[in-house]
Amino acid sequence: MLAGKRIVVGVCGGIAAYKVADLVSKLRQAGADVDVILTEHAERFVSALTFSALSQRPVYGDLWEPTGEAAARHIALGREADLLLVAPATANTIARLGQGMADDLLTTVALATTAPLLLAPAMESHMYQHAATQANLRLLAERGAIVIPPESGRLASGEIGPGRLPETPTLLAWISKTLGRNGDLAGRRVVVTAGGTREPIDPVRYIGNHSSGLMGFALAEEARDRGADVTLLAGSVNAIPPDGVTLRRVGTTLELRDATLEAIREAEALVMAAAVADYRVERPAGHKIKKGSADENPDGSLTLHLTPNPDILAEINALVTAGGAPRLIRVGFAAETTDVERNAAAKLARKGLDILVANDVTKPGSGFGTETNEVILLSAGGASERLPLMTKREVARAIWDRVVPLLRDRAPSSRDAEH
Ligand SMILES: Cc1cc2nc3c(=O)[nH]c(=O)nc-3n(C[C@H](O)[C@H](O)[C@H](O)COP(=O)(O)O)c2cc1C
To answer: How many domains does one find in the chain?
Structure first.
């Protein structure tokens, strides 16, 4: 998504300016072309050399430098940009942007560009909460700027409050989301489930599974970066969920069932990548089960009675068949260990799915906790496609590529009608 994009990063004179060096480095690594503009005061905090070394391009600062290069570039930078990010956006620059001033290179480029403007305010919390700063941010947002909310925490001043520049992954997520806002999932509401469920045995133990959440997260990120409004229902995971999506945490399969039924009311597509427990402990103990306690059988063994969990996809199928959520596109996953294709085809039909993603979790590089996956995509029409080993993000791309035409057929958006 970032590869080949031209991103102008305006760095202002705030204490968080050093963090943006990492962002520029990550953008470059992702294949973006990054032009950095430092305000005069930013140069008091960070050096142009750091940014030119990281971006592998000249860094712009003084609009008035004698060669005229910067002055000549200001229109070109604005015209060529896919996105202008101001980070950290100081109270001062936010005010100047709000007033439409053009008294340095950054504010001049901001007026000269039609690219989306992304602002990452970062400052001491009273400055951030000041009515003037808030009014300027509101004004800029009304004009179409996207304001990344600062995080709360310990600030350079020692105070605790809102005003921290978010970390690089969060900034990258906002950039990707903004760049993708006119993508082929723009305006679509989609629900993705990820991770494993946990079925309690007692207050400290549970029955879980090896799902890492990586496949579901890749699906959520890919949909977000193609413009979708994503609800991510995440069970137990060992990765950080993506930013820029509506995240709901769930624990048990019953919680996931309720959250899914609620989320699909407004959704056009559901991708169930979560690994759901088929059984739960019928009566979890209210206390920690101890050796030698009355919980044990007379021979010292312990019996857990398992009861079946509801089959979420089957319930949704019944709902769709009964006329509820008639346009919902449903994608399921089948983690198989034997006879993958046949078991998967049977599951697709049984659950009334539009697409089923089958993978043999015993294959190297496939399934739980890996960065890659090798899957077979089965469609309701009978088509079956075996994809080579690829990253989970690439698998996610392939899945959404197949969901997009189904969405267009079943629930054309006003955008489709225009074309
Ligand atoms: C040590 C120091 C830290 C500062 N940190 C911030 C900050 O985090 N956010 C902010 O809005 N202003 C901060 N300021 C004030 C700005 O540097 C000042 O308003 C400056 O005029 C901003 O210029 P610019 O917006 O053109 O970069 C700081 C000033 C100093 C001296």
So the answer is: 2
Q: Are residues 84 and 13 in the same domain?
A: yes
Residues in the ligand 1 pocket, defined by CB under 6 Å: 12-16, 39, 41-42, 88, 90-93, 122-123, 127
Q: For the segment 191-229, what is each residue's pLDDT rounded down to a tens digit?
A: 999 999 999 999 999 999 988 999 999 999 999 999 999
Q: Please report, for the domain that includes residue 41, its CATH number.
A: 3.40.50.1950
Name the residue of 20, 90, 165 to mutate for ligand 1: max ligand atoms within 8 A of Cβ: 90
Contact 212, 273 (CB under 8 A): no
Phi then psi for 100, rounded to 5 degrees?
A: 70, 25
pLDDT one-digit tens code per residue, 325-365: 888 999 999 988 788 888 889 999 999 999 999 987 777 77
CATH of the domain at 246: 3.40.50.10300
Are 172 and 26 contacting, i.e. CB atoms less than 8 angstroms apart? yes
Q: Has residue 50 been placed in a domain? A: yes
Establish if 1 belongs to a structural domain: no
Per-residue pLDDT tens for 109-165? 999 999 999 999 999 999 999 999 999 999 999 999 999 999 998 888 888 899 999
Q: Do 248 and 368 sit in the same domain of this protein?
A: yes
Contact assessment for residue 42 and residue 66, using Cβ atoms and an 8 Å cutoff? no
Atom number, ligand 1, closest to the C-alpha of residue 13: 27
Separation of 90 CA from ligand 1 center, angstroms?
6
CA of 407 to the centre of ligand 1 (A): 48
What are the b/e assignments for 329-345, b being 16+ CB within 10 Å?
bbbbbbbbeeebeeebb
Parent domain of 133: 6-179
